[in-house]
Design brief:
Elements: H1 3-15, H2 24-30, H3 37-43, E1 51-58, E2 63-69, H4 74-93, H5 113-125, H6 128-131, H7 135-138, H8 143-152, H9 158-161, H10 186-199
Antiparallel strand pairs: 1-2
Helix pairs in contact: 1-4
């Protein structure tokens, strides 16, 4: 609904990725008013992770995650904690009840390098639809605008791979994908993005 909702979701991407019970409201109560994501991430010791998050993107009515399980049953537990935590927050804030997400989350097992590369690009290019809805069929009319929009879109792991230093970088495990892409420098990633924009994927 707004940036506050998006920031809470991103906080939960970090906090719910833990073997510990995630009580984000307790954490917020212990911090001063106006705490930043950086101060929250630095304060909270989440312990052991359930999954490695390689990429994510929040859209106005859905989200995408690329995750690798690091503990048995980690993906299912992470998704349960994430959806429950966000639904409770949203329902409390907007004085509503009941389910928020439409059915169970959809998941696909990545069985090959080619599909993994496709997902990585698909997730990161999703926000282009917000400025050029038909770009996959017609191409990008305003390429520079699309590139700038992606780089400034804060609700995705895209800026982290571009080399932006921000708190949200703690959400992802960049090393998860270095075997599949030359992501050692922001320039390598930006060159890869140019290829995605050329081919529509």
């Amino acid at each position: 609904m707004d940036n506050k909702c998006r920031e809470r979701f991103m906080e939960l991407l970090y906090f719910c990725n833990s073997t510990k019970a995630a009580r984000i409201d307790d954490l917020h109560k212990s911090l001063s008013q106006g705490s930043t994501l950086r101060s929250i991430f630095e304060t909270y010791d989440r312990g052991e992770k359930l999954v490695d998050i390689g990429a994510y993107c929040l859209m106005p009515n859905h989200f995408h995650l690329l995750v690798k399980e690091v503990r048995a049953g980690g993906i299912a537990l992470f998704m349960q904690k994430l959806s429950t935590g966000y639904t409770m927050y949203f329902n409390t804030r907007y004085n509503r009840s009941g389910a928020l997400f439409q059915g169970k989350y959809k998941a696909r097992h990545v069985t090959g390098d080619r599909y993994l590369k496709y997902l990585f690009s698909y997730i990161h290019l999703n926000p282009v639809k917000l400025v050029e809805p038909g770009w996959k069929k017609t191409g990008i009319a305003q390429r520079a605008n699309a590139r700038t929009y992606l780089a400034e879109y804060q609700y995705s792991s895209f800026p982290d791979y571009c080399g932006n230093k921000r708190a949200e970088q703690d959400i992802i495990s960049m090393e998860m994908l270095t075997d599949y892409y030359d992501l050692q420098t922001p320039k390598n990633f930006k060159d890869t993005v140019e290829a995605w924009l050329d081919h529509g994927e």
